[in-house]
Amino acid sequence: MENPSESFDSILLKVFGGNIFLKKYTLIAAGHANQALCLRTSWGSFFLKINQETDENLFREEALGLKLLAENTSLFVPEVYGFGQVDGINYLVTEWVREGVRSKDYWRVLGEGLAELHMATQVGFGLDHPNYISILPQPNEMHRDWTSFFIDERLEPMLQRAYFHQLITKEVLQKVRAIYPFLEGFFPSEKSSLLHGDLWTGNIMRTTRGEPVLIDPAVYYGHREMDLAFSRLFGGFSDEFYETYNDIFPLEPGFEERKDVYNLYPLLVHLNLFGTGYLPGILRVIERFY
C-alpha cells in the first residue's frame, strides 16, 4: 500500500459519503492475511479490517455473519458500516469497540447469550450461502442431518485441502475417512442451532462496561456442541460460563467424550492455516476409533 492515508480516506468516502476526513490511523493487529486498524476521524473512531490477498467476498460474508448474530442474541455485536474494495484493498468497516476489563458477571452473561443464540434454529444443517472460517472457504450446503453435514461440509473439504497441499499423507487421509462409519449415531439428535462458528477467547472482546462482544464469526446452523467444543480447544473460558449455559440449555450426557471429535474440524482448519504442528492432535482423536 503506497499511501495508506489516501486509501483510508477513499474507504471512508465510499462508506460514509462526504464531510468525513481521517485524522489518524493506528495498526492494532497484523496477521498473515488481514490487518486491523483503528481509524480516528472527524466523525469519531471506526474499526477497519483490510487485506489485499484473499477473496473479495471474505468481508462481505463476515458482515453478513455479524448481522445474523446481532439479530439472534442480546450479546453485543459491532455494527457494520460498510464493506467492499477500494484501490485493490478489501475492507470491512465496523463500530469501534473500546475495550475494558471483564465485569463480575461477564461469564454468566456470555453463557446466557450463547444459549440464546443456539435457540435460533432452522430446518436442516447449513446456511443459504458459503462463507469463511478465518481466510479459508467454508462450504455450507444444506443437509437434513448433522452427521452428513459434519463429514461432507466440515471434515472432507479441510481434509482434501490438507492432502492437496501435502500437509498430510494418503495414509492419514484414509485413517480419518475410516472413522466416518463410526460417526453414525455418535452425536445427540437435536435441531440445528445458529453457531458463532469460531468461538475462542480471541473472538470475544469486552466493552468499557465489561460486557462480552462477539466478533469474527464463521456462522452456520449446526450442532450447538460444536461451539462449546471449540471453546474448550484452547481454553480460557470459566466454569461459570459452562454452568450458566447448561442451566439454560442443558447438554446431553457424554459431551466430554464427544468434544474432541467436534474439534477435528478446527484442528484441520489450523493445520491448513499454520502447518503440521496440529497433525498430532488430529491423529490422537482418530486413534480412539481403532
Secondary structure: elements and pairs:
Elements: H1 4-16, E1 22-30, E2 35-41, E3 44-51, H2 58-72, E4 80-86, E5 89-95, H3 106-118, E6 131-133, E7 136-138, H4 146-164, H5 170-177, E8 193-195, E9 204-206, E10 212-214, E11 220-222, H6 225-233, H7 239-248, H8 255-262, H9 264-274, H10 279-286
Antiparallel strand pairs: 1-2, 2-3, 3-5, 4-5, 6-7, 8-11, 9-10
CATH class of the largest domain: Alpha Beta
Q: Got a strand count? A: 11
What is the end-to-end distance? 52 Å
Total number of distinct structural domains = 2
Give unreliable regions as ranges. none
Q: What string, H for helix and E for strand, traces the elements in order? A: HEEEHEEHEEHHEEEEHHHHH
Could you say which structural class the secondary elements and strand pairing correspond to?
alpha+beta
Q: How much strand?
A: 15-25%
Number of helical segments?
10
CATH superfamily of the largest domain: Aminoglycoside phosphotransferase (APH), C-terminal lobe
Strand order of the largest sheet: 1-2-3-5-4
CATH architecture of the largest domain: Alpha-Beta Complex
- The outline comes out as globular
- What's the Cα radius of gyration? 20 Å
Describe the structure.
- The protein is an alpha+beta fold.
- The chain folds into 2 domains: 4-95, 2-Layer Sandwich (Phosphorylase Kinase, domain 1); 106-289, Aminoglycoside phosphotransferase (APH), C-terminal lobe (Aminoglycoside 3'-phosphotransferase, Chain: A, domain 2, Alpha-Beta Complex), CATH 3.90.1200.10.
- Helices cover 39% and strands 19% of the residues.
- It contains 10 helices and 11 strands.
- It has helices at 4-16, 58-72, 106-118, 146-164, 170-177, 225-233, 239-248, 255-262, 264-274, 279-286, and strands at 22-30, 35-41, 44-51, 80-86, 89-95, 131-133, 136-138, 193-195, 204-206, 212-214, 220-222.
- The strands form 4 sheets. A 5-stranded antiparallel β-sheet has the order 1-2-3-5-4, with helices on both faces. A two-stranded antiparallel ribbon has the order 6-7.
- A hairpin with a 2-residue loop joins strand 6 (131-133) and strand 7 (136-138).
- The longest helix is centred in the middle third of the chain and has 19 residues, at 146-164.
- The radius of gyration is 20 Å and the shape is globular.
- The model has no long low-confidence stretch (mean pLDDT 95).
